[in-house]
Structure formats: C-alpha cells, structure tokens
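Journal club prep, shared notes

We agreed each person brings one worked example of a sequence with its structure written out as tokens. Mine is Endonuclease/exonuclease/phosphatase family protein. I'm keeping it raw so we can talk through how to read the token line rather than staring at a rendered picture. Sequence first:
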Amino acid sequence: MNPSVAPAASSLRVMSYNIHHGNPPSKPELIDLEAIVNTIRKQTPDLVALQEVDVHTERSGAFNQAEEIARRLNMHYFFGKAIDHQGGEYGVALLSKYPLSETVVHRLPSKAETKGEPRVLATAKVTLPDGTTLRFGSTHLDAQRDSVNRELQIREIVRIASGEPLPFLLAGDFNATPGTGVIHLLDQAFTRTCQNCAPTIPVLKPTKAIDFIAYRHPAGKFSVASHRVIPETYASDHLPVVAQIQIRK
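Then the structure, token by token:
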C-alpha cells in the first residue's frame, strides 16, 4: 500500500465511527463495507477512529475489515483486537493518511463479577508531513447499564494519556452521555470537540450523544474549527462524528 502524500497540515480532519461490523441495521444479514467506505470518503478525513471492526469472522467473511477499508481509502491502518469472535477477531481500528508507528493495544479493566466484554484502547504515533507528531487513539467502552466498568476504563485511559508527552487525540464510542461520571472524568483530562453535542444514536431520530472526539495537548496546540454529526442513516447503527482541529505551529 502506498498512501498518497498529503500536503502539510495546519489542521486535521478527524472522524469517529462505530461501523457495526459493516452491517446496515435495516439489512441484518448483509455486510455492506462499501457503504462505510463511501461515508468515510465523503468526509475526506485525515484520521479515523473505528469501532466494532471484524477480522476474519463468520458473520463478516474471511477478510480484515480494517485493512480492506484502509485499502479502498488509500490510508494506513492499525487494528486493535478486543476479543476473539466467531473464529476471528473483533475490536477497534485507526486509519490515517499519514504514517503510523509505535502502535499499542492497551487492555482496559473491568470488574470480574460483571462479566463485561473485554475492551481496549488502540493507539499509534502519527507523523504529519511537516514532522509534527501526535498520539491518536480509538476506544469503545463497556456497554452495560451500570457504569462501573466504563468509569474504570476511562480512568485507565486518563492514566495512559497523563504519561504521554505527545499531544493526544482520542476518539470513540464511550457508551456514556455528557453529564455522566464517565464523561466528567473524560473532561477533566481532555477537551471534547463539542460541548452541546448533537446526538449520535439511534441513527433514526437520534436522542443520545455517546460518540466523541477529544484532545489533550500542551500549551494550546489544538483548537476546534468545527464539529459535525454526519446524518448518514443507512451504513451503521451510529452516526459518524467529524471535527476539524487546528494545529498551532
């Protein structure tokens, strides 16, 4: 793969998208990865955090969804496995127009008695054409009604981020809305690209914002130029989120 060389960026277009393993909710038996690819392509992002990504599973087929989406978009990628699933793997992924290095899958904690599905934070170092470097992460927090695991998981993400010297962009499905303890903990360490955030689920008549992009940076490195929820209602059960982030040189 030879991703195209993009011009030096004074801003980054960042997208977060829970892709529901490429399954349109209106067609339970169908995998329509092209609908996901087209949704991403229309937004021309520099960086994309994906959640609910299949690799070689029975339900999706014998291929790596992260790799295939990246190939069709001519982007770099990194897949972070959360669990083994249906003969393959399932987790989160990063897509980038720019080179990725120092890729890591951080296992996130949960209380054993809850029997929560294992969750991860996948991160990579991104090097922009002008030599600027940053850390980019994708995560998908616990979905149980009780927030105990989500709070443990966001605390661990904050701990990881607090030891990171690079500017940190974090995106994902937090399964928590603004005003909850989980998002309060996120907001103590990161700045979300929206404050009065438009809802992202369900895709038809959405009522809850649970998908966010956030950043942590030294001395005003980042600022938000725009934040949008994209009204794409076919491809997934979540609406994608896109933010334009300015980078101070």
